[in-house]
Amino acid sequence: MAAVYAALLAVARSSREILDLDKYIDPLHKKNNVSLKEKVDFIVAFFEDFPDKYQETLGREGNRIRKAAYEAQDFMDSYQFSVSTLGRKGNRIRKAAYEYKDFMDSYQFSVSTIDDEGSSEDVNLNLGRNLTMASDRIGFIWREMMKMNNGDTAKDLRSVSYSFHVDRSSTVQATAKKMVVGFDDDLLAIKERLYEDSAKLQIIPVVGMGGIGKTTLARKAYDDSILSQYFDKCAWITVSQEYQRRDVLSGLLKSLKNEQSNGNEAELEKLVYQILIGRRYLIVIDDIWSTQAWDDLKMTFPDDGSGSRILLTTRLLDVASHARSSDAPVHQMKCLNNDQSWKLLQESVFEQQSCPLQLVEVGKKIAENCGGLPLTIVVVAGLILSSGNVMREEVWENVSENISSKEPTIALQCSKILCFSYDRLPLRLKPCFLYIAAFPEDSEIDVSKLIKLWVAEGFLKPKDQFKWLEDVGERYLEDLVNRSLLLVSKKGPDGKLETVGIHDMLREICITKAEEEGFLYHVSSKTNSRTEFVENPYRRLRIHCTKDFQEWKILDSSVHSVLLFSQGYQEPRLHLCSRNIGILDAPQVTWTNFSSVISTFVHLRSCS
Fold this sequence. Notes:
Layout: H1 2-19, H2 27-49, H3 55-89, E1 99-102, E2 106-108, H4 121-148, H5 184-195, E3 202-207, H6 214-222, H7 227-230, E4 233-238, H8 245-255, H9 265-276, E5 281-286, H10 291-297, E6 309-314, H11 317-323, E7 331-332, H12 338-350, H13 357-369, H14 374-385, H15 393-402, H16 410-423, H17 430-434, E8 445-446, H18 447-457, H19 469-482, E9 487-491, E10 497-501, H20 504-516, E11 521-524, E12 531-534, E13 540-544, E14 551-554, E15 561-565, E16 573-576, E17 583-585, H21 594-598
C-alpha cells in the first residue's frame, strides 16, 4: 500500500506544480486542472484516513492503481514541461512537449517543429491530450475507490479529514537501546575481560542471534568512562556482510581521529599499524559475518604486549570461534527471561513510572510473546507509545492479540512482530520508512540528505503549520525514531539529528516490503562482465557496485529515481535510457558527456 500511496502523492505534487504555472496555463485548461487537483487531494486524504479498511482490497488492486497513478504523473509532468516551455518561448517555440506513445512501457521524446510564423495550436492539442489522459487515469482510481467503498460516497467519504495529525504521543523516546536490561552479568563479564591483567592481545568475541543486544552491550562497555583512561587508543568499526577492506581501514582511521584516510589498502593498513604499535588500544569490530573478514583485518592489529583488546560481535559461532584468542572463551548471549522481558517493556514505555495494575497481566503476556529479544520488545514499546494513550487497556490487548506466539522459532516470531509494527505505521510514514532500503547495510544515513530525497520524491505534503517541507520531514523522521524503527547515530550541538541508522533485522523487513509492494528495485553485479543491463525495474532503482569500472545500462524508460552506491569502487559508469529521471543520486559516477546527458533530464529535481 505504501507504493500506491507514494504514487498518489507524486500525482498530487504534480497537480500543485501545474497550478503554480497559472500565468502560462490556457484558460480552457485551468478549470480542468483545478478539478483534477481537488480530486487527487481527495483520493490521497481518503487513503490516509482509511488505510486499514482497504488494506486487503489494495493488496489485490494495488498494482493497477499504482500503474494508473504513474501514468497520470507522467502525463502531468509532460503537460507541466510543455506549458512552462511554451510560456517562455511563445509562438516561436520549436520543440514541443514530451509525448507518451505507449504509456508506461515506451515513453518517447517526440519533437514537433512549429513554423516561426505559425501558431501553437498543435502544442495546445498535445497539452489538452496530456491533461485528458491524466484525468482518465485519475478517474480510473476514483472509480476503484468507489468500488472499495461499495459506492457509498455520502457517509464515509464526507468524513475524510484533510487535517494533518502530528503524532505527539511519540515524543517520549524509548530509551531501551541505552539500557542493558537483563544483561548486567554480561556487561560485568565483558568489562572484566577488557581490564584483566594480561599484557597479551586478547580477542573477545560476543556471539548471539540478531536482535539480542550484542551491539548495545558492546556500546555500553565502549562508553564506560574508565575506558578512555585505561586505553591509549579506542576505535569502533562496523564490518557488515557487504564490506570492502579498504573502506573498513579508512573507517578505522577516522574512528582513531586520523585525518589521513585516503590511499590504497597497503598504505592504510600500514598507517593503522603505526598508530597502534606501542599503545594499549581497544578496537570494537561490530557485526562481522565471515572468517575471511577477520583474516583480512587481523594482521593490522599489533600484538606487542601492551595489554590491548579487540571486542568483536557476530551472529555466527564459527566466526567467533575462529577469531577468539586461543585461551579465551566465546561470550554467548542468551535471550531474556520473562521477568527481564517485562522489566524492559515497562522501562521502555513508562520510563521511571510504574505500570498501572490493570495493564500488568496483558503487559507480561506481550513481553513473553516477544521471545526474549530486546529488539522486538523495544519495537513493540514504540508501537504502544505511538497509540496515543498508553493507559488504554484495549491498546495493549490489540497488540497482544496480534503478536501472540504461534511461530516455531524465536527468529520467525521476531520477524512477525517487526512486520506487524510496519503494518501499523501511519500511511504517511510508510514510504519514508521503505526508502531506507535504498541505503547500504550499516550505513550512517545523513538526515539532511534523506529528508531532501523525501521532498524530491514527493512523500511530504505541505501543511499550514509547517513553513517548509523539510520541517514536515523532520517530524516524520522523529516519529520513526520514537517508534524505534530507526536508530540515532549522531546528534548535532543543537540536539538535532544528524545521522540515523537501522538495525539489520528491521532493514531486512524494509527491503522485503519494498520489493513486495513494487516500491524499490535493488540491483548489484550478477556476472563477471563489466557491463550490467538492467531491465524492467520499478519506479525507483538502487544500484550497488561490486567491482571497479562497472558500467550500468538502465534500459527501462519508466525509471524515475536512481540511487547508486559505489562503496569505494572506482569510476562506476551509468547509461540511462529514460528521460523521466527526476532523482539522480550518483556522486561517484563517470559520464562520457555529462553536459549533453544532463540536459535531457528535464524533470530532474534538486536535492542540494
